[in-house]
Each structure stands twice: as C-alpha cells, then as structure tokens.
Amino acid sequence: MQKRLWYLAALVLCFAPSLLAGEAEAAAGGINLGEVLPVWSIIPFLGILLSIALFPLFAPHFWHHHYGKVSAFWSLVVALPFVLAYGHPALHEILHIVLIDYIPFLILLLALFTVAGGILVEGTLRGNPLLNALLLLIGTVIASWIGTTGASMLMIRPVIRANSHRRSKMHVIVFFIFLVSNIGGALTPLGDPPLFLGFLHGVPFFWTFKLLPETLFVVAMVLVLFFLMDSYLYHREKQAGTLKEPAGEKVPLRIRGAHNLIFLAGIIGAVLMSGTYHAGEVKMLGIHLGLANLFRDLVLLILVALSWATTAREVRKKNEFTWGPIIEVALLFAGIFITIIPALAMLRAGTHGHLAFIINAVKEPWHYFWITGVLSSFLDNAPTYLTFLNTALGNFYAGLPESQAIPALIAEKGIFLKAISTGAVYMGANTYIGNAPNFMVRSIAEEQGVKMPNFFGYMGYSLLILIPTFILTTFIFF
To answer: How many Cα neighbours within 13 Å face the side chain of 92?
Structure first.
C-alpha cells in the first residue's frame, strides 16, 4: 500500500510543476482555465482511455478486479495537481462536472437500467438473420422515445437469449450497440443526451425530426450490412453443423413485469419536465442547480425504488439482472468525467485555448460533422455537442444572445446544426466509451457468456462498417 502511494505521489509531482505555472494567474481571479491549461494536461484522459483499451486485453484478471482503482488513480492524477495549481477555479470545475453532469447522468442511467431490467420478455425467439434484423429495427425505433439506454436495457437480454443457440453472435451485439445504443436515438431530445442538451438551450423539441432522412439512410445501410453478415455466418454454421437447436417446446411470447412500462413513462415525463419547466435555482457548494433538475433526479430515484420493490425477484432472476454493469459504468465514467475536464475547458476556450487548432479547422458542414463525431467517439458527446454548437453560433452570430442566435442558425444555416447533431449521436457508436449504453451492453453480454471484442477489436468493426457509412453520409448530406 505504501509503495502504491509513493507511485501516485511521484506521478502527481510529474504533472504538478507546469500546472503550478498558472497559480499566480489563478490567484489574480477571473482566470479562464481553458486559456492557460497546457495541452499535455489531457494526458491523464488519454491514460484512462488506454487503460480501458489495453488492460482487458493484456491483463484481464487484474482489470476485472481493479478497474475501479485504475479509474480512481487517473482521477487523482488530474484532480490533485489541478486544485493545487489553480485553487478555487479548479475545485469549481470539478464540483460543476460532478453535480451538473456526472450525478444526473448516473441517476438517469440507474433509473433506465433498473426499470428496464424489471421487464422480462418470455417466449421462444430463434435468432436467425431475419428475426435479428427485426429485433434490431424495433430497438432502433424505440430508442428515440425511451432513450438509447432504455432501449438497450429493454432489448439486449431478449436479443442475447434469441441467439443463445448460435456460436457466432458477437457481431449481433456489436451491431446492437451501433443501432440501438446510438444511431436510433437521433430523432427526439429524449433519445440521446446531446439532443436533450440542445433542447435545453432552445432547439425546438420537434426540430430533431429533420434528422429523419440522414437517420433513415444510416440505419438502412447498417441494417443491410448486418443482415448480409449475419446471413453469411448463419449459413456457415448450418453447413458446419454447429447450429444448436433450442431445447424444449416453443413458448408463446409474453411480457412479465409490464407495470415497469409505467415507470419508464414516468422517467420520460420527468426528463421532459426538467427541460420545459423552470422553477428557479438553488446554490450548493458554489454550484447553481436548477430546482426542476433536482426534482427530476428525486423522481427518478423514487421510480428506481418503486420498480425494485414491485417487481418479482423471479422476473429479475430470469432476466439475469445484476448490478455489475451499472457499477462498472459508474466507476469508469467517474474517471472519464474527471480526466476530461482539461480537454473540455480548452475546447470551450475556442481559439484562445491550446486546442485552438481543432476549433480553427471547422468551416464547412462536413467539418462539423466529423470533428463533432470523432471527438464524441472519445469524449462525452453532450459537452462536445454544446462546444461545437457554440462554435457555430460564434462563427455566424457573434455577439447575438443565444435566444436569438439559435433560431437564426436553424432558419438560415440549419445544415450546420444537423451536422453537429448527427455527428454527436451517430459517432458515439465508434468506440465503447462513445456512449454509456455501449459499456453497459458489453458488460451484460459478457455476464451472459457472450465473448465480446476488446476495445480495438470493437473499433475494427466500426472502421469496417460505420466509417464507410459515415463517409457516404457526408457526400450525400453534408
């Protein structure tokens, strides 16, 4: 234990000296952290990304037992010298991302995870290419209305059970992440956090329906590629004689725990209320918190408790429900949210920060589509969306209040908002960390015995399937 503390202290000291160069500026007050943070302050963020990518590949036993400690380690490597160097402004940034972003993010995921985990779809489902494509299409359609997390938690277990007799099923889960956990959430602000953030900043609720042509094209492309791949693998299994017949008699389809659908509607209502009803603010630890948001989080926690109390234990047992996936997401994303602070601060600083070369590179709609998308693959896609929304507003309507600038952007240069929105939502599918449901689906699949690709293996699928699709999308739409 003492040796570990020495290692941590040494790493903190490595990062502290250059950060301390800004201490005098911090003391003067009014500091913009994004303008003074050195570009290499994103190294701990890269460190946690590499840890997520490499440890499961080269040290799976260590990672399985200690991923929470690895996440805490990288968080401390950022937080300690950051606060030491910049004092109150740094502490404010940490508290802000924890109270405004991380805790509400986790509460919403917990609510969707718990409620959807109490809905059991029973019956005989035989996973062939046609049925699998239909299940993915259903999940994709409902993702815009119950969120990518809600749709993922509702559909993943039936999809896994339907394919339990097959040897080749890894690709089914990968395409599930592509479509249900990401792309399907593009049509309403309820579907994915970036769009909800846009809704909070004045983008009309039904404007996102304008993304229908792009979404239909991407969904069709990915679904056709899935059907072709699944058909090839299915027939290969048939010819090799490795396709097992499901045991037992056919059981009619039925839903148990259906009352959780009411709780699911309650979650949607609470989220929608928090974006439309403004009830003032309260200050907590120096952070202004909206009362409507606090009420939303309280309602979500109550719905979690009601779902847990009213759902038969047998239903959750048959659903193979465990807390493991949500715990993994909570611990890893805690580290991601903390280590991402320097990167987001520099992006928010625009041309005055050390990541100005990224901001300066975006001029055309396709620039916005790709830069928002690529960063959303590795950063949290909600603040990335907001960063480039503000970049577009600054480029076209500098000095105009947001309440006037966003309607003007929609009316005069709507293609830029389309590019930002689709890039943030679609390209969250490029990596496991692009969107929280990606992690949860992978974790549930592995718990139920499905061998999933490692970080780079998953990116191999996205490079093969998604990137060509997005290139075509660029030429057709942007």
So the answer is: 15
